[in-house]
Design brief:
Elements: E1 3-8, H1 13-16, H2 21-28, E2 29-30, E3 38-44, E4 50-55, E5 61-62, E6 78-84, E7 89-93, E8 96-100, E9 105-108, E10 115-119, E11 128-134, E12 142-144, E13 150-154, E14 163-169, E15 180-186, E16 192-193, E17 197-199, E18 203-210, E19 218-224, E20 227-233, E21 237-241, E22 248-251, E23 256-263, E24 272-274
Parallel strand pairs: 1-3
Antiparallel strand pairs: 2-21, 3-4, 4-11, 5-10, 6-9, 6-11, 7-8, 7-10, 9-12, 13-14, 14-15, 15-23, 16-22, 17-24, 18-21, 18-23, 19-20, 19-22
Length: about 280
Protein backbone atom coordinates (compact mmCIF):
# COMPACT_ATOMS: atom_id res chain seq x y z
CA UNK A 1 0.00 0.00 0.00
CA UNK A 2 1.42 3.40 -0.98
CA UNK A 3 -0.64 5.53 1.46
CA UNK A 4 -0.14 5.37 5.22
CA UNK A 5 -2.08 7.64 7.54
CA UNK A 6 -2.69 8.26 11.20
CA UNK A 7 -5.35 10.11 13.15
CA UNK A 8 -4.38 12.80 15.66
CA UNK A 9 -7.25 13.79 17.91
CA UNK A 10 -7.34 17.30 19.37
CA UNK A 11 -5.56 17.92 22.67
CA UNK A 12 -6.68 20.76 24.94
CA UNK A 13 -4.38 23.24 26.64
CA UNK A 14 -5.16 21.94 30.13
CA UNK A 15 -4.33 18.37 29.13
CA UNK A 16 -1.07 19.37 27.44
CA UNK A 17 0.20 21.04 30.62
CA UNK A 18 0.78 17.61 32.16
CA UNK A 19 2.49 15.97 29.17
CA UNK A 20 6.03 14.66 29.40
CA UNK A 21 8.45 14.74 26.46
CA UNK A 22 7.23 11.46 24.96
CA UNK A 23 3.58 12.55 25.10
CA UNK A 24 4.35 15.91 23.51
CA UNK A 25 6.17 14.22 20.65
CA UNK A 26 3.49 11.56 20.19
CA UNK A 27 0.72 14.13 19.86
CA UNK A 28 2.36 17.09 18.11
CA UNK A 29 5.41 15.85 16.15
CA UNK A 30 5.28 14.22 12.71
CA UNK A 31 8.75 12.72 12.31
CA UNK A 32 8.48 10.26 9.41
CA UNK A 33 6.57 12.04 6.65
CA UNK A 34 9.02 11.43 3.79
CA UNK A 35 9.30 7.75 2.92
CA UNK A 36 10.46 6.35 -0.43
CA UNK A 37 7.56 5.53 -2.80
CA UNK A 38 5.04 6.33 -0.06
CA UNK A 39 2.41 8.92 0.77
CA UNK A 40 2.37 9.52 4.53
CA UNK A 41 -0.51 11.57 5.97
CA UNK A 42 -1.39 12.83 9.44
CA UNK A 43 -5.09 13.66 9.76
CA UNK A 44 -5.42 16.17 12.59
CA UNK A 45 -8.59 17.23 14.33
CA UNK A 46 -7.37 20.83 14.52
CA UNK A 47 -9.45 22.47 11.79
CA UNK A 48 -9.33 19.00 10.12
CA UNK A 49 -5.95 19.91 8.61
CA UNK A 50 -3.97 17.09 7.00
CA UNK A 51 -0.17 17.30 6.80
CA UNK A 52 1.82 14.84 4.74
CA UNK A 53 4.78 13.89 2.62
CA UNK A 54 4.94 12.33 -0.85
CA UNK A 55 8.18 10.85 -2.23
CA UNK A 56 7.81 9.21 -5.65
CA UNK A 57 11.06 7.46 -6.54
CA UNK A 58 10.46 4.38 -8.68
CA UNK A 59 6.74 4.78 -9.29
CA UNK A 60 3.94 7.30 -9.75
CA UNK A 61 1.94 7.87 -6.57
CA UNK A 62 -1.77 8.68 -6.49
CA UNK A 63 -3.42 10.76 -3.76
CA UNK A 64 -6.44 8.57 -3.07
CA UNK A 65 -9.10 9.16 -0.42
CA UNK A 66 -8.37 7.76 3.03
CA UNK A 67 -11.06 6.29 5.25
CA UNK A 68 -11.49 9.28 7.64
CA UNK A 69 -12.60 11.44 4.69
CA UNK A 70 -15.58 9.18 3.90
CA UNK A 71 -15.32 10.37 0.30
CA UNK A 72 -14.78 8.85 -3.12
CA UNK A 73 -11.90 11.21 -3.95
CA UNK A 74 -9.42 12.97 -1.69
CA UNK A 75 -10.47 16.43 -2.88
CA UNK A 76 -14.24 15.94 -2.96
CA UNK A 77 -14.60 18.34 -0.02
CA UNK A 78 -11.02 19.57 0.39
CA UNK A 79 -8.39 21.91 -1.02
CA UNK A 80 -4.70 21.07 -1.23
CA UNK A 81 -1.43 22.94 -0.96
CA UNK A 82 1.93 21.46 -2.04
CA UNK A 83 5.53 22.68 -1.75
CA UNK A 84 8.36 20.65 -3.24
CA UNK A 85 11.41 20.43 -0.95
CA UNK A 86 13.29 17.87 -3.09
CA UNK A 87 14.33 17.37 -6.70
CA UNK A 88 12.18 18.30 -9.67
CA UNK A 89 8.83 16.58 -9.95
CA UNK A 90 5.50 16.56 -11.73
CA UNK A 91 2.01 16.81 -10.27
CA UNK A 92 -0.82 15.78 -12.60
CA UNK A 93 -4.25 17.16 -11.69
CA UNK A 94 -7.06 15.60 -13.72
CA UNK A 95 -4.76 15.27 -16.72
CA UNK A 96 -3.04 18.68 -16.43
CA UNK A 97 0.69 18.52 -15.70
CA UNK A 98 2.44 20.95 -13.34
CA UNK A 99 6.24 20.84 -13.08
CA UNK A 100 7.53 21.82 -9.64
CA UNK A 101 11.18 22.54 -8.97
CA UNK A 102 12.63 22.85 -5.48
CA UNK A 103 10.69 25.32 -3.29
CA UNK A 104 7.90 25.84 -5.81
CA UNK A 105 4.27 25.54 -4.72
CA UNK A 106 1.00 24.31 -6.16
CA UNK A 107 -2.54 25.00 -4.99
CA UNK A 108 -5.18 22.43 -6.03
CA UNK A 109 -8.84 23.33 -5.64
CA UNK A 110 -11.66 21.18 -4.33
CA UNK A 111 -13.47 18.84 -6.70
CA UNK A 112 -10.47 17.57 -8.65
CA UNK A 113 -10.60 13.80 -8.84
CA UNK A 114 -7.18 12.39 -9.78
CA UNK A 115 -3.92 13.83 -8.43
CA UNK A 116 -0.69 11.93 -9.10
CA UNK A 117 2.98 12.56 -8.40
CA UNK A 118 6.22 11.52 -10.05
CA UNK A 119 9.89 12.53 -9.96
CA UNK A 120 11.92 13.55 -12.99
CA UNK A 121 15.03 11.81 -11.66
CA UNK A 122 14.85 8.86 -9.26
CA UNK A 123 18.40 9.67 -8.10
CA UNK A 124 17.14 13.06 -6.89
CA UNK A 125 13.46 12.47 -6.13
CA UNK A 126 10.87 15.13 -5.51
CA UNK A 127 9.63 15.50 -1.94
CA UNK A 128 6.18 17.04 -1.90
CA UNK A 129 5.03 18.44 1.44
CA UNK A 130 1.27 18.83 1.61
CA UNK A 131 -1.33 20.59 3.69
CA UNK A 132 -5.03 20.00 3.04
CA UNK A 133 -8.07 21.61 4.63
CA UNK A 134 -11.85 21.36 4.19
CA UNK A 135 -13.19 23.58 1.40
CA UNK A 136 -16.68 24.91 0.68
CA UNK A 137 -15.88 26.12 -2.84
CA UNK A 138 -13.66 25.11 -5.75
CA UNK A 139 -10.94 27.57 -6.74
CA UNK A 140 -8.62 27.18 -9.76
CA UNK A 141 -5.44 25.15 -9.50
CA UNK A 142 -2.39 27.45 -9.58
CA UNK A 143 1.38 27.05 -9.50
CA UNK A 144 3.41 29.63 -7.57
CA UNK A 145 7.20 30.07 -7.86
CA UNK A 146 9.39 31.91 -5.35
CA UNK A 147 9.56 34.81 -7.82
CA UNK A 148 5.75 35.04 -7.80
CA UNK A 149 5.45 34.96 -4.00
CA UNK A 150 4.84 37.97 -1.80
CA UNK A 151 8.17 38.37 0.02
CA UNK A 152 8.71 39.94 3.44
CA UNK A 153 12.18 40.72 4.80
CA UNK A 154 12.06 40.72 8.58
CA UNK A 155 14.32 40.58 11.63
CA UNK A 156 17.96 41.55 12.00
CA UNK A 157 21.40 40.11 12.68
CA UNK A 158 21.37 41.82 16.06
CA UNK A 159 18.40 39.75 17.21
CA UNK A 160 19.51 36.57 15.38
CA UNK A 161 16.29 36.41 13.35
CA UNK A 162 17.07 37.91 9.93
CA UNK A 163 14.78 36.03 7.56
CA UNK A 164 12.91 36.05 4.26
CA UNK A 165 9.23 35.08 4.31
CA UNK A 166 7.80 33.78 1.03
CA UNK A 167 4.02 33.98 1.07
CA UNK A 168 3.20 31.39 -1.60
CA UNK A 169 -0.36 30.14 -1.11
CA UNK A 170 -1.92 33.13 0.57
CA UNK A 171 -4.73 35.60 0.06
CA UNK A 172 -3.70 38.04 -2.66
CA UNK A 173 -1.50 35.51 -4.43
CA UNK A 174 -3.86 32.53 -4.68
CA UNK A 175 -7.61 32.27 -4.07
CA UNK A 176 -8.33 29.67 -1.37
CA UNK A 177 -11.13 28.80 1.01
CA UNK A 178 -9.08 28.74 4.21
CA UNK A 179 -5.69 27.17 3.52
CA UNK A 180 -2.55 29.34 3.60
CA UNK A 181 1.04 28.21 3.13
CA UNK A 182 4.43 29.82 2.87
CA UNK A 183 8.11 29.38 3.55
CA UNK A 184 10.54 31.19 5.82
CA UNK A 185 14.32 31.02 5.28
CA UNK A 186 16.71 32.08 8.02
CA UNK A 187 19.84 33.91 6.91
CA UNK A 188 23.26 32.50 7.92
CA UNK A 189 23.94 33.46 11.52
CA UNK A 190 20.24 33.75 12.37
CA UNK A 191 18.44 31.01 14.28
CA UNK A 192 15.20 32.41 15.75
CA UNK A 193 11.88 32.14 13.91
CA UNK A 194 8.57 33.75 14.75
CA UNK A 195 9.89 35.96 17.51
CA UNK A 196 8.11 37.79 19.06
CA UNK A 197 5.98 34.68 19.44
CA UNK A 198 2.27 34.74 18.80
CA UNK A 199 -0.97 32.81 18.91
CA UNK A 200 -3.90 33.04 16.53
CA UNK A 201 -7.00 31.79 18.27
CA UNK A 202 -8.96 31.75 15.02
CA UNK A 203 -6.79 29.20 13.24
CA UNK A 204 -4.21 26.47 13.77
CA UNK A 205 -0.81 26.06 12.15
CA UNK A 206 1.81 23.46 11.25
CA UNK A 207 5.55 23.93 10.77
CA UNK A 208 7.83 21.72 8.67
CA UNK A 209 11.54 22.24 9.34
CA UNK A 210 13.99 21.45 6.52
CA UNK A 211 17.26 22.58 4.90
CA UNK A 212 18.75 21.58 8.25
CA UNK A 213 22.01 19.65 8.42
CA UNK A 214 21.64 16.11 9.72
CA UNK A 215 23.79 16.86 12.78
CA UNK A 216 21.80 20.00 13.69
CA UNK A 217 18.38 20.52 15.32
CA UNK A 218 15.67 23.10 16.03
CA UNK A 219 14.07 23.59 19.43
CA UNK A 220 10.39 24.27 18.64
CA UNK A 221 8.60 26.16 21.41
CA UNK A 222 4.88 25.52 21.90
CA UNK A 223 2.21 25.81 24.60
CA UNK A 224 0.36 28.72 26.14
CA UNK A 225 2.46 31.87 26.59
CA UNK A 226 2.64 31.29 30.35
CA UNK A 227 3.04 27.50 30.00
CA UNK A 228 5.63 26.97 27.27
CA UNK A 229 7.09 23.59 26.32
CA UNK A 230 9.58 22.55 23.66
CA UNK A 231 10.03 19.78 21.13
CA UNK A 232 13.43 19.11 19.57
CA UNK A 233 13.02 18.62 15.81
CA UNK A 234 15.35 17.26 13.14
CA UNK A 235 15.47 17.83 9.39
CA UNK A 236 12.16 17.26 7.56
CA UNK A 237 10.08 16.92 10.71
CA UNK A 238 6.83 18.80 11.30
CA UNK A 239 5.10 20.14 14.40
CA UNK A 240 1.32 20.52 14.69
CA UNK A 241 0.36 23.71 16.51
CA UNK A 242 -3.15 24.10 18.01
CA UNK A 243 -4.83 27.50 18.19
CA UNK A 244 -4.02 27.80 21.90
CA UNK A 245 -0.28 27.36 21.33
CA UNK A 246 2.53 29.69 20.42
CA UNK A 247 4.86 28.46 17.67
CA UNK A 248 8.45 29.61 17.63
CA UNK A 249 11.84 28.02 17.24
CA UNK A 250 15.58 28.38 17.67
CA UNK A 251 18.05 26.26 15.73
CA UNK A 252 21.61 25.18 16.28
CA UNK A 253 22.16 26.55 12.75
CA UNK A 254 20.09 28.39 10.17
CA UNK A 255 17.29 26.48 8.39
CA UNK A 256 14.08 26.87 6.41
CA UNK A 257 10.56 26.02 7.47
CA UNK A 258 7.17 25.80 5.79
CA UNK A 259 4.19 27.18 7.64
CA UNK A 260 0.64 26.20 6.86
CA UNK A 261 -2.58 27.53 8.39
CA UNK A 262 -6.26 26.72 8.35
CA UNK A 263 -9.12 28.31 10.21
CA UNK A 264 -11.65 31.07 10.36
CA UNK A 265 -10.12 33.77 8.17
CA UNK A 266 -7.46 34.63 5.60
CA UNK A 267 -5.88 37.60 7.40
CA UNK A 268 -2.17 36.81 7.71
CA UNK A 269 -1.70 39.43 10.45
CA UNK A 270 -4.57 38.16 12.62
CA UNK A 271 -2.45 37.19 15.62
CA UNK A 272 -1.92 37.94 19.29
CA UNK A 273 1.75 38.76 19.87
CA UNK A 274 3.79 38.25 23.04
CA UNK A 275 7.08 39.96 23.81
CA UNK A 276 9.95 37.67 24.87
CA UNK A 277 9.71 39.10 28.38
CA UNK A 278 6.06 37.91 28.63
CA UNK A 279 6.84 34.23 28.00
CA UNK A 280 7.19 31.74 30.78
Amino acid sequence: MTIDYENRYAIGHNEAKGFDTAQLRENFLADDLFQQDKIKLVYTHYERLIVGGIVPVNQTLSLDAIDPLKAQHFLDRRELGLINIGGSGVVVVDGQEYFLDNKEALYVGAGNKLVTFRSLDSASPAKFYLNSAPAHKSYPTKKVTKAEANVLELGSQETSNERSIYQLIINGVVDTCQLQMGMTSLKPGSVWNTMPAHQHDRRMEAYLYFDLAEDQAVAHFMGEPKQTRLIWTANEQAVISPAWSIHSGAGTSNYTFIWGMAGENLDYDDMDKYAPTELR
